[in-house]
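User: Hey, quick favor. My workstation is busy. Could you predict this chain's structure for me?
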Amino acid sequence: MVLAELEIKDGSDVVAQEPGTMIRTEADPYYPGIEDFLVGVKAGKSKKGKVSFGDAARNAVVAGKELDVKAKVISIQANEIPELDDDLAKELGHDSADAMRTSIVDRMAKGREELARNQARANLLESLIEANPFDVPEGMIDDSLEMLIRELRLQQAYMGRDPRSLSFNDAQMADLRIRAAFACKAGLILEKVGELESIEVTDD
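Assistant: No problem, here it is.
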């Protein structure tokens, strides 16, 4: 684990500014691709260069892009994984090591099922939009875009980062606008389906 100060630029635009964020040196979820860039840099030292970030980056502003990075390593830490036995399992709220393994496997299975459902839903919405082309009022897209940006800033805040540091260049704003238009069309189609099929949400 590397606690690092980061400045990430797309040309002259600063797209991410981190006064101090913890980076996993193996499969970091927010900045995948930066791991090799940081490994070998000593605490207190800085490094500049280009980094190709993975498409799956949870930080949407860097996903799938090659960007200029300036990094300073503040500190380096290591996780020591203890042996899983009944005592450790009980300390973590499980009856035994076997019960803990079963619980983890069950949680992972549910996570995969949820991911598959979400992907199937997205694919279905995409097909519905393609089969029912129509224009969405610009004002509605503007509102959807504002909500999307607010959600991204909220994610920054949940990660302990200053949401005001999140900025978008023209290409990123164009991509976000496409996503906002998609959300508008999907919402309108589902609303119409609910109306035609008389779908209501009951207390049950």
